Amino acid sequence: MFKGQSAVKKLTTYSLICVCLIVADYQFGQMQRMRAWLSLAVTPVQWLVDVPQHSWTWLGERLQVRDELIAENKKLRAQTLLAERQVQKLAALTVENFRLRDLLNSSERLDEKVTVSELIGVNTDPFSHQVIINNGFNMGAFVGQPVLDATGVMGQIVSTSAFTSRVLLITDADHAIPVEVNRNGLRSVAYGLGQYEYLELQDLSDTADIEVGDILVSSGLGLRFPKGYPVAKVIEVRHLAGQDFAKVIAKPTAQLKRSRHLLLIETPQRQSSVEKESH
């Protein structure tokens, strides 16, 4: 239409057309209807033009949400691990509380003076059943002092230092403890076999009145272990043909491989010697 005309003429012509359309839109109501139809026709074009921007915005939001979910998942996983650790610690503390309560109940039944101690080390030598506790001679521990847990006799102290002591367990091959059958008072000696689960009575005659299930308690002979503390439970009585002595195997009542809190007994002999020294 304006082919061959100069740029100034084209600008002037377009400007006049725009002014006429503006005046017509202002003066005539039919122009609004025409504008609505033109807007409807242009809408798909506007939507298509907006698709890339809308898609980019949607993708950015999804990526942001994904990053937030990943971060939140990591945070929740860490919180879960912390909660599980606290639950495990709580379970351990609950069990320890029960053990301490049993230990306290045990100490209340004792006539002798007792001291609570804690196991802090185990001898790594498989042929020597010894443990280390956190009581030394500065806290009154002494060589020969009996050691118990909540269920029975553990052993005796064989060496002390200022802050720790070494305890020889009753199952050590070098340990022996005088015992008696709680049912009938039959006396014997329980020897360690070097195994945490077994003790052996070696000097009972084949006709001795002892049965599986009998409880062995300390007899008090030898003046080392006070009388009446549980030591072991008989689990096997074997009568060998032609032998003068029966083979009797017992299982210690103390939890030798599990107990952590122990009781140190102040024997009457030790109390008397301390009183004499103080005077």
Provide the CATH architecture of the largest domain: Beta Barrel
- Largest beta sheet, briefly? 6 strands, antiparallel, barrel
Give the tally of structural domains: 2
Instruction: Write down the overall mean pLDDT.
Output: 81
What portion of residues is helical?
25-40%
Strand tally is 12
Computed structural class: alpha+beta
- Report the CATH topology name of the largest domain: Thrombin, subunit H
The rounded distance between the terminal residues' Cα atoms is 135 Å
Strand content: 25-35%
Order of helices and strands: HHEEEEEEEEEEEEH
What's the total helix number? 3
If strands are numbered along the chain, what order do they take across the biggest sheet?
A: 1-2-5-4-3-12
Please state the oligomeric state of the protein chains shown. Answer: single chain
Global Rg: 46 Å
Looking at the structure, what is the overall shape?
rod-shaped
CATH C-level class of the largest domain is Mainly Beta
Sequence stretches where pLDDT stays below 50 over 5 or more residues: none
Give a short summary of the structure:
The chain has 279 residues and is of the alpha+beta class.
Structure description:
- The chain is an alpha+beta fold.
- It folds into two domains: 1-81, no CATH class; 113-278, Thrombin, subunit H.
- It has three helices and twelve strands, in the order ααββββββββββββα.
- It has helices at residues 7-27, 30-108, 268-278, and strands at residues 113-122, 130-133, 146-148, 153-160, 165-169, 176-181, 187-192, 199-201, 215-218, 230-238, 247-252, 261-266.
- The strands form two sheets. Strands 1-2-5-4-3-12 form a six-stranded antiparallel β-barrel. The chain has a six-stranded antiparallel barrel with strand order 6-7-8-11-10-9.
- It is rod-shaped and about 140 Å long.
- 22% of the residues are buried.
- The model has no long low-confidence stretch (mean pLDDT 81).
